[in-house]
UniProtKB/TrEMBL annotation:
It is an enzyme of class 1 (oxidoreductase). SUPFAM superfamilies: Heme-dependent peroxidases. Heme b binds at residue 194. It catalyses: 2 a phenolic donor + H2O2 = 2 a phenolic radical donor + 2 H2O. It comes from Psophocarpus tetragonolobus (Winged bean). This is Peroxidase.
Amino acid sequence: MSPFSVLFCAAFSVCWLCCVTNARLTLDFYKDTCPQFSQIIRDTVTSKQIASPTTGPATLRLFLHDCLLPNGCDASILLSSTPFSKAERDADINLSLPGDGFDLVVRAKTALELACPNTVSCADILSAATRDLLTMLGGPFYPVFLGRRDGRSSLSSSVAGHLPTPSMPIPQIAQIFTQRGFSVEEFVALSGAHTVGFSHCSEFVPNLSNSSSSYNPRFAQGLQKACADYRKNPTLSVFNDIMTPNKFDNAYFQNLPKGLGLLKSDHGLYSDPLTRPFVESFAKDQNKFFQVFAHAMQKLSLLNVQTGRKGEIRRRCDQIN
């Protein structure tokens, strides 16, 4: 069976599950109410990505940080804090989320409100834009089911323990994903999102001098040089994948056995016997990585979605109506 046939079969099985569990979500949800939806998303994604190449990884991370929380894919990560409530986006782990992802959603929402007022949810915009950006970067295509409603609540206190951090041991990170219904293989595939984007020096420099470090010595020296002034300039950052930083591929997994991972959690994927077999598998077979990643992303996009009378269609993505 060809890789494309395998991907089609996997997508079909997921689609069947989606249709059963989320009957109100459809691939053509806006066919009649906003036929320009897909084109507006594509146009917005294309112009933003060309103007700012960090948009793809920024939006992917924003999507992951929204959907992994217990309230699921409800665009609650986009809500701003109020004088009475501190929102998810202001939780410590989310303070480093790049602004390009937020800006992309605002641009798409503005265009969609002009074309189809009060029709398209911010949650659908984020899900569709993430998929389109991934394909622009060379990643796999997967169908995005639409019809989500936006959440009305966003609390920073709900974030702790539900999102992985670079310093977490692999079993703890794996548990975050398995508790949300993902297999270990899917967790490793989603970690492959680090094949694009960057990380701030403060997230990995403290690990470079560790005597038991898994870093390639020359790579560690290069990182120390690149991050020499990170205490004075906390915005200093380095590409997660130094080989093909702007292309979504399996180079990230090929880097790990060579000691070219950037974060402690990256090295952990290869050193931990629970995850190492999947790292090796994805390093050898990019089609396999794409297949599992696409399946996991679609699965993630459907976690705890609100439909029908639940939630709302926000007029602005940063505040409830």
